[in-house]
Amino acid sequence: PVAIMAPTDTGYKPSDVAHVPSAASELQGLFRAAMRAALPKLTDEPVVVPTGNPKFGDYQLNNAMRIFAHLKGQEGAPKNPSALAAAVLDKLLETLPADGIIAVERALVKEKGGKEAEKVVSPAIAGPGFINIRVSRAWTARHIQAMLRDGIETWAPRVGYQRAVVDFSSPNVAKEMHVGHLRSTVIGDSLASTLEFCGVDVLRLNHVGDWGTQFGMLIQHLDDRREGGLAGGAAEEDVKDLQALYKAAKKRFDAEPEFKARAREAVTQLQSGNELFLQAWKRICEASRREFQAIYDRLGVRLIERGESSYNPLLRPLVEELCAMGIAEDSDGAKVVWVEGEKVPLMVQKSDGGFGYGTTDMAALRQRAHDERGDWLIYVVDEGQSGHFRLVFGAGRKAGILPQEKDAPPRVDFVGFGLVLGSDGKRIRTRDEGAAVRLVELLDEAKERSREAIVAHNRENEEKGRPFVTFTPKELDEAASIMGYGAVKYADLKNNRLTNYKFNFDEMLDLAGNTAVFLLYMHARIASIDSKAVARKREDGRATLGIDELKRSATLMLAHDKEAALGLHIVRFPDALESALADLKPNVIADYAFNLAGAYNSFYAECQVVGSEEEDSRRLLCEATAVVMRACLKLLGIQPLYRI
Ligand code: ARG
Q1: The complex's ipTM?
Q2: Whole-structure pTM value
Q3: Is 209 in the pocket of ligand 1 (CB under 6 A)?
Q4: Which residue spans traverse the membrane (predicted)?
Q5: 635 closest CA partner among 529, 526, 422, 493
Q6: Best substitution site from 385, 388, 401 to test ligand 1's pocket, by max atoms within 8 Å of Cβ?
Q7: Cβ distance 20 to 147 under 8 Å?
Q8: Rounded to whole angstroms, how far apart are CA atoms 52 and 569?
Q9: How confident is the model over 506-516, as pLDDT tens digits?
């Protein structure tokens, strides 16, 4: 039987993989050479972009106007952007290698005198200086075939950074991990995976909130609750239901001034190293960690925990240094750092001498830049904290932790995201009281609904005499997890991260929508074509080659328009990665994957695969589609399914 999950999914090892320039960078090189030849004084780089509309070719040089503006007034400068483009195009055509990436089309064109003459009609100049080109089908076919041979990793674009530190997920101890943390978890995981795919060494950090003032009330409450207090040894069961513990402690904290005072005192006790308090704190953290880990295991997310408490020893020396440097200043007994252009300062020490969220983030920034040698520091945190991070980054620049020049490493990025809304359009979140939407329950429901859908789908197929899949209970469970959790992730990742989105099970599990379910079915369907081809009895009695042999012996050809369109979309995969990384937006990859499924569907509707004359070539095209689809799914944190 065919495994339902990837049989050879061993992960990518980009570091030892050769890099193949993408179509866009190949074109960039050709345009650069043509521009240097046409305009020797020019130092600008050509900007070649994929076009959204085939009317404008497949790729387009789109910065002739800007270049023109730069050259204006200089000796020998072209007289307008179109003339500039014409000069570049002339050189391009002169130097174009035969059988290269740019397709050259000629046609009979009527000249002024009414005579007809053969002329190049593509590449062509359009509008005020755009140069539109078409990618040659033969080149596309060769490019894809090489990828099938050498692996999709060879298509990973080069990223100019060695070591990225991605801070994501970062829930708070004893408070429930809520959907906001889910967003951070799936977006951060996707960005980290994309960087890893591109050969960047990524440190995935979980900046867990394990050192807040909430511990004072939690510990004090534990102390009060049992005879003999903490000294009596708070048992495991005291921290079993952290939610309940938090709720009860918070209630007293808000209602009993006397308790509140003792809770404050408990914070001081904890921070000054009281052994009993430390033990209680550790127990609470461990219980919380178990809950978080269960979620990460389900979601298949890897993270290294480095909570706020781990920066404790660094805080006092850091603040002293900032004061000595004159960067932190006194403000009513507190120590603050002012950042140019900001209305409020970053607080690094409270008036009672305590340190807070901002101090910890300053210490973490330095640790990541200096000790970890990160040259790209990324923070995936809800948009509501953008102000906090502007202050942290600004203070970091002032203190010399970050460079003064904007483009010098380490680069820092705040990757914000919007809210998750319930179907009523209101913010969905866990509250201390009222209807709490627990993350675990969301995941459970997504999985259960997927299980039902998979079973119903196959039962219907069986009843209607169509091919159906029978699962062992274990396989069904795995498929339901992959589909359910994949659906939740995809529903998040397909949105521009800055927009709020509605959490809706029916929508995210829609087989016909822009969903993980749709993509997983597409992938399984593509994968099944190959088994169909192999299983089929051929008239000549010979066995059909397996896909691995086929990759070596058959030649991919893109003759039909739909084959060519699918092929073009496949070679644009690196463009999607580049643009996803440029804005740190995983939705670009989701869009790409959805459009890949669309291009595949159009191809499949018009081009017979199994039993056709083009069977071998088309099986290769199907395989390439499946390979790229799996890569997309992987970057979105979704495991592929081979049978559903
Ligand atoms: N624990 C914080 C929260 O739940 C997020 C931490 C983000 N990372 C950081 N370095 N501040 O809101």
Answers
A1: 0.99
A2: 0.93
A3: yes
A4: none
A5: 493
A6: 385
A7: yes
A8: 11
A9: 999 999 999 99
